[in-house]
Design brief:
The protein is α+β, with helices and mostly antiparallel strands and about 350 residues long. It has 10 helices and 12 strands. GO terms for molecular function: ATP binding; phosphorelay sensor kinase activity.
Amino acid sequence: MQSDFDLLATLIAILNNEQRVVGANAALEGMLGISRRKLFGLPFGHFMKDSAALDLAFSKGNNSPEQSVFRFQAALQDLGRGEQIIEVHANLTKVDAHGDWLLEMWPQSEQAKHYQDGQLHELAETNKMLLRNLAHEVKNPLGGIRGAAQLLGMETVEPELHEYTQVIMHEADRLQALVDRLLEPHRHPQSVEPVNIHEVCEHVRSLILMEYPKGLMIEQNYDISLPDVQGDKNQLIQVLLNIVQNAALVLRPKIELGLAHIELRTRVARQVHIGKKLHKLALELHVIDNGPGIDPEIRERIFHPLVTGRDDGTGLGLSLAQTFIQRHHGMIECDSVPGKTSFVITIPLP
């Protein structure tokens, strides 16, 4: 029974009629920071800031045999320090005639995050199909326009008209490059192999420092105990390069002053929710810069295609990065305030 519950992201506790723990799943262990062996036999109300709602649900359950599910809200707390951990929505269900009860809990913040992640994933899939179809529709007539301009240029003797055809060909080439970038994620199959994420970080770090040899510090804050991730090394390099390049571009004024700073930080995260799935272990790769922050007007849309905060930007770098990381069953999130922008790449570990 417990092994099945361990597959769920929901916090699960099995209680007896005295509200004592007789079973728990891995998600609850991770949230409370206590093994199920130590949880066994303890009154679950001790882990709640106020157990009145749980007491009431048990009372209703014992007095209302026709009703099987009782819903309430509660706040879990640290047993040792009495500090609140997280607020949860809870369902209490009578399991069998022996007096066992199933207590299911969903962190309120996690519910909001799951919804946001689900929306982001659906949006990414919709945008991917839209852009792919649009790129294919644009590509053929674009080639015709360039070909016609090239033929016209060969027939034109007037320098002014020849210049116009050159402009048409140049702009057609620019649009072709944009279309190629839109189609890039769909052109190459993903190659899955063990990848040392620190080799990826060091490769990207060296590329950026070659471009900005002075005025930019890229700090290495690595957890060397991290195992390899299963993924496509080239795609992971492209993801990190896109993010770090963006950071370096917005840091240019500070680079000129010698005050620019980017941190590459790797950590192991435990009991991580990505979308609706719980992963026991995940890689977290943080890219943190001390730049001006992301414009609030576009902050919620930075992973959408063609959204950019720079006049010379295409708005494809972060969209492409998110697509590649979703191919690795992961997610990229961003938190930004003036003076600190943090991108977190999360990828499940085997």
